[in-house]
DNA sequence: CTTATAAGG
DNA sequence: CCTTTTAAG
């Protein structure tokens, strides 16, 4: 049986729920949906967003109110849930959760956004340094058990020039720094995980998954591809279809990111 | 010649301007309009609200950004402008301004709102204690010069039971405390200024000028009369008509207060 | 419930 | 530009 996974940074689930997330969730064919930047605790959400009928919800908020927060919504009940990735500094940061759904472990990642020359960029780099060994370990564990892993989410890094519209102007911008791009290359080349959407669509621009709310970024399609599904090779080989659900108009947007969805065929 | 004065707490002029204040200002027949809670500096306002054609604007913001702020809009250019009332603690608080328009001085007052048991209630009481002597002095000065005075604004006190819908439930609420009501009585009885709207309409409930945004206060007309025109007896005797411009529907509200307007006949 | 603010993105 | 928080009302 095939299954579909979607991932989207909702930029505040309370606001997204008012603007169209609930309708999107009702119409998606996905079996699992990974969310980032929920920016709310379960009790702050309306039931149709926080406990929708037909879905199991695992929500890991940040200890800091109104910040970060990741979730996995799944039609099947998860067999297991793991919160965080075992690094003290990022415990309680609401940036990673992983659920087991049959033979696949599905992670929802919200990698910190940075700003060059600030402490937030240093935090982003510490996160990257801490998360890479976790990926190495998880790949080994998962494959030793005959299972697969996909880490979905907002990785806050565009990998190559084809992954953002204005790459020349952004060579010194956080999210496209050489050291960030090199780190992502290590995830793909050293750890051996696969950028599923790029694997299915080599040699195309984008598809972008984030457009700033500032200026005319959305109208000009001045986007970035920073939301990924990063999978073990065995699972990546089963990916048959990928799409980014870019809103048809500004009025239909309910986040500054768009859902990135992948259909995986039967094993 | 008769003239009309309106007073209204706009609860943030930027928000009010988006919701209907500009249209109201364009349709009013008033010669002078006193505003309270402007909550903006002139440069933060769109021209149609901050510098409308046909009006002279005197705006006194608070030193604290986004707080308080009073203004007088007048069709004639003021002959003089006085800011504050000469008490150090409330200098820069954006709570009082007075302009001279011919033989009448028009003040715009935003008396602090309080909350029982808090420092804000103590500040309200210090303001009251400091403002009363100012009124005494100004009445004497104005009348000695053969002029009149009207202090318009949000006094944040309902005087009598007829001045709020739920007076029993609010006997211990800031805005209807015995000491606040007694202070207003002193303004009327000792200082000898006149509550113009009540003088024209004795023995009626209200008319209320403020309805909380919380709950169903507006729909239930659970209002308070806390916005006043308080005038020297000579001017009060010339008042011929008063009204509160309560919005016809929730959708037409552009503030939690409504304009209180008085027509004064020729002297 | 609504207006501001500030920080975050 | 947008969503949060916090303070104020």
TrEMBL record, chains A, B:
UniProt keyword terms in alphabetical order: Hydrolase, Magnesium, Manganese, Metal-binding
CDD domains: Nape_like_AP-endo
Superkingdom of source: Bacteria
Cofactor list: Mg(2+); Mn(2+)
UniProt cross-references to Pfam families, sorted A to Z: Exo_endo_phos (PF03372)
Top-level EC class as recorded in UniProt: hydrolase
GO biological process, one term: DNA repair
Residues annotated as site: Interaction with DNA substrate: 257
Site for Transition state stabilizer, residues: 156
Amino-acid positions noted as binding Mg(2+) in the UniProt annotation, renumbered to this chain: 9, 37, 154, 156, 256-257
Enzyme Commission identifier(s): 3.1.11.2
GO molecular function: double-stranded DNA 3'-5' DNA exonuclease activity; metal ion binding
Active site residues per record: 110, 154 (proton donor/acceptor), 257 (proton acceptor)
InterPro entries: AP_endonuc_1, Endo/exonu/phosph_ase_sf, Endo/exonuclease/phosphatase, ExoIII-like
Protein family (similarity comment): Belongs to the DNA repair enzymes AP/ExoA family.
Protein name from the UniProt record: Exodeoxyribonuclease-3
Organism: Nocardiopsis composta
Phylogenetic lineage: Bacteria, Bacillati, Actinomycetota, Actinomycetes, Streptosporangiales
